[in-house]
Amino acid sequence: MKKVLFIAFTLLMTASAVSVSAQNKDRRKSFNSWDNYEITTEKVGVDGTKFVKVWGYGRTVDKAVMAAKENAVHACIFRGLPGNASAMSTPPICPNPDTLVSHEDYFQNFFAAGGPYLAYVNMTTDGVPSGTDCRKVKGGYKVAIYVQVMYDNLKHKLEADGIARKLSSGF
């Protein structure tokens, strides 16, 4: 009888661990793992835009390119853009780290596949990345693309939606 109870208990614990593991995999897109990407400012863009090189990971090249586009917009909103010799660094639109958590539903929709974030990305790399900008890695691909982000338009959208504070709202 003890063996049966032990086996039943073990199976129950294993099933719940698998359930939690699967849930964590689905929740990975909850923006907690978005600190793992590279982005560099390439040059000053046209007024109101930022021209960056950003990396993305994915099982296919196309998914990695989409991830890189998301990463470019995410960096503008939450991390800011690093500076270089020809461009100053750019602060994040939403410098408060709690913004992501407090508006999680908004950003889940915003960054959904084919979501509104794409309106603020102007792809400047022609075709599929190649050479050192497209690397085969364990589990898929790591690609770099050059992107022009419509930074001012993105900022105005987030302000209008009540996500980012307007500069005129005071400090």
Please name the defining characteristics of this protein.
globular, 19% strand, 5 strands, 171 residues, alpha+beta
Main pleated sheet: 5 strands, antiparallel
Q: Beta fraction of the residues? A: 15-25%
Q: Characterize the overall form.
A: globular
Q: How many domains is the backbone divided into?
A: 1
H/E order of the elements? HEEHHHEEEH
Broad structural category: alpha+beta
Secondary structure: number of strands: 5
Could you tell me the mean pLDDT? 80
Low-confidence stretches: 14-32
Radius of gyration: 20 Å
Structure characterization notes:
The chain has five helices and five strands. Helices cover 39% and strands 19% of the residues. It is of the alpha+beta class and 171 residues long. Strands 1, 2, 3, 4 and 5 form a five-stranded antiparallel beta sheet that branches. About 11% of the residues have low confidence. It has one domain.
